[in-house]
C-alpha cells in the first residue's frame, strides 16, 4: 500500500502546477508560460476575490481564479461569492489528474521495482552535492525525506517532499471553502473530468537519472518559493489584487519538470478543452454558474478567456 504514495503525490503536484497557459485547439503551444493578456489582469472593483465573467444572451459563467493553497483558517470576504452562488445553477470545480485506489494498487505492484533507484542507492548517493545543499537549506520542518536512507527515485522523492509541505505549512486548498458555501446555498456541485495519472507516472519512472535529479532540485526550489509566498499570494487573491496574485504564480522548477514530460502536454491540452467545453455547456442553461479555475490558463495569451472572446462571447474583467 505504501507504494501508492508516489502516484497520489504525482496527482497533487500536477494539480498544483496547472497554472501553465491554456492551449488553443488550432494553435501551437504558447512558448512563454508567463505571457498573459494584460487587459484581463485588473484589480477587482468590489471587495473580496476577483471574478471574470463569460456571457451570452441569457446566461453567465462567473469564474473565480484561486491560488494553489491558502493558509488554514484564513479569513477572507465571502460576501460577493455568496451573492454569486445565490440562485446559481451550479458550482464547477477544476479538472485535474487523479487515479482510483484500485488502479493505484495494481500499478504499484506491477512497477514496484521502478519506484526506487537502481541498486537501492540512497538519495545522498544519487543527488549532486549542490542539490543536496539546496535541500538542506529548506527549513528543517520541510526536510521530510531522509536523504541517507530514502531509496525512492529523485522525482518521486521530490513529489513526496512537496506533498508533505501542505501539512507542515498548514496550507489548505481554497476549494473547500467554495464547497461549503455552495452546500449552504443548496447549489449543485460538480467537477470537471479527471485525467488518469498513470501515463504520467509511467513516463517519469523511465526518466534519466540526471533529469530526475534536476526535477528534485526543481521541486525543492518551488517549495522554497512557496514557503515565502503562500501567505502574500493568498492575501492578494483575497483582496482582488489580481496582478500581485498573478505574479505569485509564475512558472517554477516543479512546473518545468512536470511539463517537460510529453504525456503531460497532451493531457494538459485535453484538460483545458474540457474546461472550455464546460463553460459553453453552462452557458446553454439560462441563469448563472460559478466556476473555479487556475489564474494563468484563464488570462493567458491564447488562453481560456481569449479563446472564448474570439468566438464572440462577452468577456468581462474584475474591473467591470
Protein architecture, described:
This protein has helices at residues 5-16, 79-85, 101-110, 123-126, 129-136, 154-169, 175-184, 198-205, 209-238, 242-247, 253-258, 262-283, 295-299, 304-310, and strands at 52-55, 59-65, 70-71, 91-93, 96-98, 171-172, 189-191, 194-196, 287-293, 314-316. It has one domain (2-316). It is an alpha/beta fold and 320 residues long. It is globular and about 65 Å long. Mean pLDDT is 83; it is low at 1-31.
Structure classification: alpha/beta
Proportion of beta-strand residues: 5-15%
**Strand segment tally:** 10
Main sheet, how many strands, which sense, barrel? 6 strands, mixed
**Quaternary assembly:** single chain
Q: Share of helix among residues? A: 40-55%
**Spatial order of the strands forming the largest sheet:** 7-4-9-2-1-10
Summed up, the domain count is 1
What characteristics describe this protein?
320 residues; 12% strand
